[in-house]
Amino acid sequence: MENELLQDFATESFRESLVNWFYENQRILPWRESKDAYRVWVSEIMLQQTRVETVIPYYEAFMRRFPTAEDLAAADEEDILKAWEGLGYYSRVRNLQSAVKEVVEQYGGKVPDTKEEISSLKGVGPYTAGAILSIAYGKPEPAVDGNVMRVLSRILLIEEDIAKPAARKRFEQVLYELISKEDPSAFNQGLMELGALICTPRSPGCLLCPVRPHCRAYEAGVQEGLPIKSKKKKPLPKLMAALIVRNEEGEVLIEKRPAEGLLARLWQFPNIETAGVATQKEELAAWAEEQFQVEALSKPVQTVEHVFSHLIWQITVYEARVKGRPIGESESRRWVSKQEIEQFAFPVSHQKIIQHSI
DNA sequence: TATACGTGGTT
DNA sequence: TAACCAAGTAT
Asked: What is the model's pTM?
């Protein structure tokens, strides 16, 4: 036993209990119907930082729309973003398509099955590489996500701060020994499923736990205090003013966000960050007159709060009219009708603006 | 290593 | 209700 953490740990008994429990208790999920590596891959990307219940309908629609790696590789960026609209972390789908293109071009459409090759693909980090390798190819690679860190920190009474990037490696080291070489797929999924159904963040269901006899935290009565996780900073509010510019044909002006950064390449209504509530309308009016030659601004028609992980947009929405079509269209600026607007992918806050004001 | 990167659900 | 959480990755 090289690993100190596994001293006196009944490794084989633990594996069997976990794997058997998984086969008896796993949820029926759409991505569990096939071991096709492309399908597993798509599901793993969608599930990053995203709840299972949220992912299910997106996954089903996405697989109908892009059933194979070739279909996704050939798709327009507008279409893949639209398919991802509302899921968040939009670079995931652009990285996924970029990586799928590479798989089609460099690997003949077959998802590579080595750690080195698969890890070199955009958007495939240590967790996703391990998940695909174990689930699609049966390889004994660890797949350390938040569930796994929580479950293992309790089972082995590990008091590392799981918010720190370095913690993941510690869990991987243990798992290289602990993982079932017989059924790595069920073992990895079992660890995650246990975290999702039994070994939950708060009030874990220890009385139902298949590996309770192996749990050091339970033995010590400290399961509720694990894992250790340092707190994140609060997101800072930003005051924003958005503008619905209407022309005489009833169309509205939308623009494409920059290629990098927050909500990259999604569409939005023109907007600016403003300095203060009191001066907001003047700030917006000065900017809008210069940009779009608008006539008078309306009173605020709507307010929307958009909470991100690291910041909060507090958006006040105004309207204004222009004569004719003074603003030319371009790649990043379009006049669209109420019907046409559905084809474009917007962040949720701007979807709310559409629903309320368009 | 710390931070950017979305969104919706739960307590 | 504010805080926390959810199958992470890129930089």
From this structure: 0.97
